[in-house]
Write a structure and sequence with these properties.
This protein is mainly β. It is 9% helix and 40% strand. The chain has 1 helix and 6 strands, in the order ββαββββ. The protein is elongated, with a radius of gyration of 15 Å.
C-alpha cells in the first residue's frame, strides 16, 4: 500500500473538525459556554463534543469533531492509497 504525507493540519483549540467545506456556509461562530447545556453556536457545539467523555463525536453540520489529545500544534496528515490510486484512509498522528 502506498502512503504519502499530503500536508499538515493546524490545531489551535485542542480539537479538529473533519467536514466537507460546503457545509460551512451556515457555520455560526462564537464563544463556548460550558455552563449552558444547549449549543449556542457551532463552535460551542464542537468544543462540548470534543470535551465529552468520548473526546469526540458527530457534529450537526455533518462532520466529526474530536480532541487532538496533545493540544495545539501542526500535525502531519498521511494518506493511504489503494491499488487504483485513490485515498482510502487518512492518518493524523498527534504525538
Amino acid at each position: 500500500m502506498k502512503t504519502k504525507i499530503i500536508g499538515k493540519c493546524g490545531v489551535d483549540s485542542g480539537q479538529l473538525l473533519i467536514i466537507d467545506p460546503c457545509y460551512l456556509n451556515n457555520w455560526k461562530d462564537g464563544e463556548v459556554d460550558f455552563d449552558k447545556k444547549k449549543y449556542i453556536n457551532d463552535y460551542d457545539e464542537a468544543c462540548k463534543i470534543s470535551d465529552s467523555k468520548n473526546l469526540g463525536g458527530e457534529h450537526s453540520k455533518l462532520g466529526v469533531v474530536f480532541s487532538s489529545g496533545y493540544g495545539d500544534g501542526t500535525y502531519p496528515v498521511k494518506a493511504f492509497y489503494n491499488k487504483e490510486g485513490r485515498i482510502m484512509k487518512i492518518e493524523i498522528n498527534f504525538n
